[in-house]
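Quick check before the chapter quiz. The format below is the same one you will see on the exam, so make sure you can read both the input and the output lines.
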Amino acid sequence: MIGLFFACSNHKHQTSNVKCQITYTSPVDYDIILAGNFGEPRPFHFHGGIDVKTENREGKLIYSIADGYVSRITINMYGFGNAIYVAHPDGNTSVYCHLKRFDDKYEALFQRTGKDTLSLVFPENKFPVKAGDLIAISGNTGHSTGPHLHLELHDTRTWAMRDPLDKLAPVISDTVAPQAHSFMAYPMQGEGVFNGGFSKQTFGFGAPDIKLQTSNFKLQRTFTAWGRVGFALWADDYSEKTYNHYGIRQTRLLVDGCEVFRSVVDSIPVSCQSEVNRWGDYDHWRRTHIWYMKSFRERGVRLPVLHTNFDQGVVCFDQERLYELTYILTDYYGNESRYTFHVRGERFPGIKARPRRQLLNEYLLWYQCLWPRYSFQHL
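Here is the expected output.
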């Protein structure tokens, strides 16, 4: 097996040197229900943290999730609104946003001037905190559509966005698997055809809307294709305590049991934020407000959460036979759903199926060494 994994340009390895192991606790004193999770696709950016519900009201007590020190406090009419940053000795920084106010000792530092933006940065020995120390009161400031706590976790050194569930999963319950609604087929221009068409098409799975830990669904309809075709998926994750929907932590596409694409939304460099529009079908989102996330990598997309085979995840239908395609969706807690459909390879006039690339294609390997933007894996 050969694997080459690269992140965005000018971005070093995302894991900081861990100085010590620390314990993380809940930022609130009640059971957490999420309104949003990490990595949800948004126009021009990913959702950089988790949204903790505050019963649709302000005034909830907000606590530091781990030992550390208050490194920064900001006040802004936009964006995060009132926010407090806590640096932790394991190389992470937690950020608490949309606050109504800070704890008294921090609130006293500000003299309200009417300016849109204020910021204070503190040294390590100025405001040490312990896990569970009160640091703020929840609110609805900044770019917020309703009272809640937006909580982010960053690599302190690189500022890469990390999934807060990496630390807070034990205090959040989730026993519901993600669900797929439909897939989109993308015949490559001049190189592929799907169901007799040359443009992208959507097809619903027709799966029931049920909340289970594990589900398997097989689409009875059989499709036809020839040449190179990419796929995309519209899917959401859920939990048992709310009707909110979330982004998908892990998506895999298997063709005849072999993985051709995998996305694991666990850590995102800030320099890759805008690439959400190219991983997702932004043009379709503009018309429908529905995100189809592509299961192939377009040229120039550098997102390190995407992993493909040598064909960038594009499926080559070059044999007259039945192909089995399976999507496997998994959330952080291992709840899993599978969606399977079949495509029959049928020759089509004017479409010449490209031969499959070999593992040791010298030009491809040379190209990847020169342009470390992609992650390939031979499977």
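If your answer matched, good. Residues 96 and 151 are 5 Å apart (CA to CA).
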